[in-house]
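Hi R.,

Here's the chain you asked about this morning:
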Amino acid sequence: MNIMQNKYLQNLGYGFLSWLIPFVTSFLFYTREGELTIDISLFKSIMIVVGSVTAAFLLVSYFKNIGADYFKEGVVLGSAWFAINISLDMAVLIPMSGMSVSDYFAQIGLRYLMIPVMCITVGAALENKK
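And the predicted structure, written out as tokens:
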């Protein structure tokens, strides 16, 4: 497998992990019956922190293997991870929760804009550093 294929597989794999880790973590705060065990505002805050920490670690790991075009990589990475997270939520979270698409975007989906913001910011910082 050449380096480009590995980079794209890593992008997809990390995008999946950026969705999976917060998703699995969320189960810690629900009963088997699907009832939230903590205040909804606290839950949302915890999920934002978990998602941000996950993304930060994945970004550092991803950019360790990138040697050029950091800004472009940040745009590609942020776009891909955003699309992966929204798509997986559409396929898994929305049917599981019974939430409408408009409620989903108002309560959750809009927050995923932080993914491209973080990725592009890291890419821009690395581009300016060189």
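The mean pLDDT is 93.

Let me know if you need anything else.
M.
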